[in-house]
Amino acid sequence: MDHPNPFAASLQWIEDVFKSPESLKSTTKLIVVVGATGGQGGSVVSKFLSDTSYRVRGVTRNVESQEAKVLTSQGVEMVTADLNDYESVIRAFEGAAVIFAVTNFFEPSMKQGWELAMEIEFDMGFNMAKAASKTPTLEHYIWSTLPNPRKISGGTMTVPHFEAAYQIDNYIKQDVVLFPKTTFLWCAYYASNLQLPLSTPNYLKSLGKYVWMQPTTPSTKIVCIGSHRDNIGVFVHAIIKQPYLTLPGKYVLAHYETLTAEQLLSLWSVVTGKQAEYVEVSREDYERLWPHGGKEMGLMLRFWEEAGGLSWSGEGLVTGDKLLAKEHLGLTKRDLVGVKEAFEQMDWSGI
């Protein structure tokens, strides 16, 4: 005699629930990622797509771009928002439990100069912070920012793209709703920076070797994240999973290793098989060679050279808080992609 399955009703309910998109939404949290098609945002999207406890919404200016369509095919909800338009940011953030926010200083800087780029970046950061503060579902806000060279140097140095970002830090700290939900993320030097025109080694035919002309000493220490396209998402995921460590208002340094400028070039030479020489040039000559971005990069390298080990420690000097690094988040180098491995992933055939 056949007996009815006493669990049939429960099994049917479970099957029905997981067939319903709306029910899935109620059992997962929404992370909204600004700049989803870019390097930092793309890394966060990639990491959270592998975590089934989250739904991913990507924010971009053009959902019809090829990059956006690829993300849509992977299950990302892609939405359009103009970071200069507060109301569009409010809509993009609707329902978010987690928001990853980042701006792009260099795009407007290359077109309109760094002075105007600072204003544009501040306005974008302000709109995102204000919109996040008004998002009632928000649990965690990760703001991709940078240290304060003015504070660290006692007012003697500044770096425009650093300054534009940390001014938003100050705004967030004054928001009694948003600050307790915020983690400030410092992203160190990308290995991929060596593919930028002003930072890539150049071949000199008369020497038969590559020359890396930089406006800093070869011994200047550069804190590196390695592959930002792989590692930033790993850091953000670790931040979200450990709010007892990363909230309220804690600072996290996303880095893999610290190398001197000369060591950085040596790794590049090993990976590419190209003989290379480090040549220190004056900041004036560097800016003359690369008028678009040369001053900005020169100021940053000068700050790192002169501030040394204090370059990434400004907040701790003032607040006494410990700057969190990979070790504090339970991450090891095995979880990340270092500079050498990042160089190996890149195509150097065009130089």
Largest sheet: 7 strands, parallel
Distance between the termini: 78 Å
Shape: globular
Q: How many DSSP H or I helices? A: 16
Structural class, from helix and strand content? alpha/beta
Mean pLDDT: 90
Q: Encode the helix/strand succession as letters.
A: HHEHEHEHEHHEHHEEEEEHHEEHEHHHH
Q: Estimate percent helicity.
A: 40-55%
Radius of gyration: 22 Å
Q: Going across the major beta sheet, what is the strand order?
A: 3-2-1-4-5-6-11
Give the number of DSSP strands: 13
Labels describing this entry:
351 residues, alpha/beta, seven-stranded parallel sheet, three-stranded mixed sheet, 16 helices
Walkthrough of the structure:
With 351 residues, the chain is of the alpha/beta class. The protein is 44% helix and 18% strand. It contains 16 helices and 13 strands. The strands form 3 sheets. The chain has a 7-stranded parallel sheet with strand order 3-2-1-4-5-6-11, with helices on both faces. A hairpin with a 4-residue loop joins strand 8 (202-204) and strand 9. It is globular, with a radius of gyration of 22 Å.
